[in-house]
């Protein structure tokens, strides 16, 4: 049986051929115009695919997949994610693409046309887009913060920060690597508990969130396309004002899109940088062991319901299922090869995630390998070298037997130094952890930022590498957020005449509301709140929405009826294998995921969020990063690793 994707390419040029045949023969100008039209049509399709790939990558591959993989044991999570990606990720992505291509309407009207009494699915998608836009904007803010610090000749995360006085907080920089300290202390200015600092905003993060939403507002009102869709179709008559100097482009119906090209360029630049980071990281100590640990799979871990929940939730999240952006994009995009497009998006997403995760695992193993007594040896060696050069006085020389003592004694020696000596000793200490680190000593959304700041520091001219990398992250973040916002703007404009008459009013309302709603994530406890949104709320909501979409199309409207409608419209039948998956595989899988999520929320021991603890005394055998996660219903304490502070939230 033939697939819908096998629509004959001969149908596309029939119009031009018929008109040319009626005119007698093709002139040289008509041949050139036809070739140009085909070229730009193909270029447009390629650009659309690349922008959809960029949306998927920016949504979760860069910052979300690495920490989920590290939290769930590496290879076990990767294998589970790959299994779920094949079983229901690609089929559901293809379902959204083909529905949008078939009906050619926005996310709200699609479900109103298919199942009128389930029209609320589109509005539920808009609500999730609003939630995701709020906390995704703070990720752009983090990238902007790192980008602003990248212009220093000496990257600030390579050393403990400059301080005027020495206290326990300063020594905490020695108990962990400076890159982690910079993340919690400088970038986030994080509080020790989620209850603390919610009412106090971090100034530079607040300015960053304002800049992000202001850039988005300018993009929306000027109509720049830095995302994967546009609210209005591109027609040749509209191009007369945008491409007046190119008659061939007018003939073809397309013009070049500089902002879109900037996005695509940033994607390729990001891949080049990541490959460079990976190659350089392979020469770090412990690189082979880290990669081996990343691909090691323990079949016993498959019995963990939390592994199924997080892998399934990330499949739905990373592909943007349930957001409505894929439906809106497919309703305006050309081409018919949606099976290939869905498979390509999923494949590139997976490869990118594995590439990023490899770098993160290597850096984590490097931190763990160089911690403890190894770090003390490096610190003592550097201090002696600086004393010989005259940079430090003789009074800063460590005791002769310091290398024979436990690592904690080195911290005690520093804490007993006079303040005028403590400051330079801490400042010139190498970027390693005096405290012995384990392979799981940092988790959460900030893991990627801390790990890649370490990878960047390994290169000569690190400032340039940092500027390029974080600039690419900012562009991709803005593009991803713009695509999410278009999942709000486009349906509302088509559903409400007020917003069609005053489109800038909707842009003002969304950006102003988004800025005000995002301020909570710029507080001292904002990163903890963001973690709870990302782990508890959004994946569960997306699973519910996608399950309703699946039920609406495959069972209420009917998969068989849908195949017949597609045949009558496009002249080809859908591959029956996908209709089987929609009815008997994806829907039971989504319902099982939903059940697991509810079960875990009610019964499971609270997982953790990452908290910064600057009050921990130096004698405790932990870094000043306390791995604590919390769920909404649990308040009891659980015994953790030695010295870990387990905070629970009511």
UniProtKB/TrEMBL annotation:
Residues 1-21 are annotated as: Disordered. It comes from Acinonyx jubatus. The keyword Glycoprotein does not apply. The lineage of its organism: Eukaryota, Metazoa, Chordata, Craniata, Vertebrata. PANTHER family: SODIUM/CHLORIDE DEPENDENT TRANSPORTER, TRANSPORTER. It comes from the Eukaryota. The gene is LOC106988690. Belongs to the sodium:neurotransmitter symporter (SNF) (TC 2.A.22) family. The chain crosses the membrane at residues 49-67, 73-94, 114-135, 201-221, 262-283, 341-364, 462-485, 505-525, 537-559, 580-603. Keywords: Membrane, Symport, Transmembrane, Transmembrane helix, Transport. SUPFAM superfamilies: SNF-like. This is Transporter.
């Amino acid at each position: 049986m033939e697939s819908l994707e096998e629509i004959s390419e001969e149908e596309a040029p029939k119009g031009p051929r018929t008109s040319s045949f009626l005119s007698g023969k093709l002139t040289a100008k008509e041949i050139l115009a036809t070739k140009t039209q085909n070229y730009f049509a193909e270029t447009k399709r390629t650009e659309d695919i690349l922008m959809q790939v960029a949306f998927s990558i920016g949504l979760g591959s860069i910052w979300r997949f690495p920490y989920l993989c590290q939290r769930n044991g590496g290879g076990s999570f990767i294998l589970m994610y790959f299994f779920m990606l094949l079983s229901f990720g690609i089929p559901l992505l293809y379902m959204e693409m083909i529905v949008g291509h078939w009906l050619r309407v926005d996310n709200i009207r699609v479900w109103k046309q298919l199942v009128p009494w389930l029209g609320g699915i589109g509005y539920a998608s808009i609500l999730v887009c609003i939630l995701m836009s709020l906390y995704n904007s703070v990720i752009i803010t983090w990238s902007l913060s790192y980008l602003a610090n990248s212009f220093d000749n000496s990257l600030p995360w390579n050393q403990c920060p400059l301080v005027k006085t020495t206290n326990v907080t300063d020594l905490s920089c020695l108990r962990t690597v400076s890159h982690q300290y910079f993340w919690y202390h400088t970038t986030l200015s994080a509080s020790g508990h989620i209850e603390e600092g919610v009412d106090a905003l971090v100034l530079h993060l607040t300015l960053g969130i304002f800049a992000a939403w202001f850039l988005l507002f300018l993009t929306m009102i000027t109509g720049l396309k830095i995302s994967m869709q546009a609210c209005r179709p591109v027609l040749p008559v509209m191009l007369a004002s945008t491409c007046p100097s190119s008659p061939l482009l007018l003939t073809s119906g397309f013009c070049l899109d500089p902002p879109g090209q900037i996005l695509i360029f940033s994607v390729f630049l990001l891949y080049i940088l990541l490959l460079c980071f990976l190659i350089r990281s392979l020469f770090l100590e412990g690189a082979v062991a880290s990669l081996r640990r990343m691909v090691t799979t323990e079949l016993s871990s498959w019995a963990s319901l939390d592994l199924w929940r997080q892998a399934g939730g990330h499949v739905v999240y990373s592909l943007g299922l349930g957001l409505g952006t894929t439906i809106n994009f497919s309703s305006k995009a050309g081409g018919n090869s949606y099976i290939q497009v869905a498979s390509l998006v999923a494949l590139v997403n997976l490869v990118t995630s594995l590439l990023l995760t490899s770098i993160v695992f290597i850096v984590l193993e490097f931190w763990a390998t160089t911690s403890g007594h190894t770090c003390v040896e490096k610190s003592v060696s550097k201090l002696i070298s600086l004393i010989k050069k005259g940079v430090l006085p003789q009074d800063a020389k460590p005791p002769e037997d310091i290398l024979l003592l436990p690592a904690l004694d080195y911290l005690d020696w520093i804490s007993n130094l006079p303040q005028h000596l403590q400051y330079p000793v801490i400042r010139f200490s190498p970027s390693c952890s005096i405290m012995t680190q384990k392979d799981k000593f940092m988790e959460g959304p900030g893991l990627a930022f801390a790990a890649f700041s370490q990878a960047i520091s390994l290169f000569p001219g690190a400032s340039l590498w940092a500027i390029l990398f974080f600039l690419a992250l900012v562009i991709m973040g803005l593009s991803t957020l713009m695509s999410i916002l278009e999942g709000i703007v486009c349906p509302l404009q088509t559903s409400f005449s007020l917003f069609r008459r005053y489109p800038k009013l909707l842009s003002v309302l969304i950006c102003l509301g988004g800025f005000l709603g995002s301020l909570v994530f710029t507080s001292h406890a904002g990163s903890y709140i963001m973690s709870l949104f990302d782990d508890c709320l959004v994946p569960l909501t997306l699973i519910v929405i996608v399950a309703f979409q699946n039920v609406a199309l495959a069972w209420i409207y009917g998969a068989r009826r849908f195949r017949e409608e597609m045949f009558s419209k496009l002249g080809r039948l859908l591959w029956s294998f996908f209709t089987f998956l929609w009815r008997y595989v994806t829907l039971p899988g989504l319902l099982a995921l939903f059940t697991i999520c509810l079960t875990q929320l009610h019964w499971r021991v609270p997982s953790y969020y990452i908290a910064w603890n600057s009050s921990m005394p130096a004698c405790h055998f932990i870094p000043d990063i306390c791995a604590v996660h919390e769920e909404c219903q649990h308040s009891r304490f659980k015994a953790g690793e030695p010295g870990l502070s387990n905070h629970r939230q009511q």
